[in-house]
Amino acid sequence: MTHMLSITPHKHINLVMVFCDISS
């Protein structure tokens, strides 16, 4: 998992980042 979720202010981006991490 990346720490990007903590850095990104937009929750929508957080969901996308998490989804990408899970898909990888």
Automatic annotation (TrEMBL):
Species source reads Arundo donax (Giant reed)
- Protein name stated in the entry: Uncharacterized protein
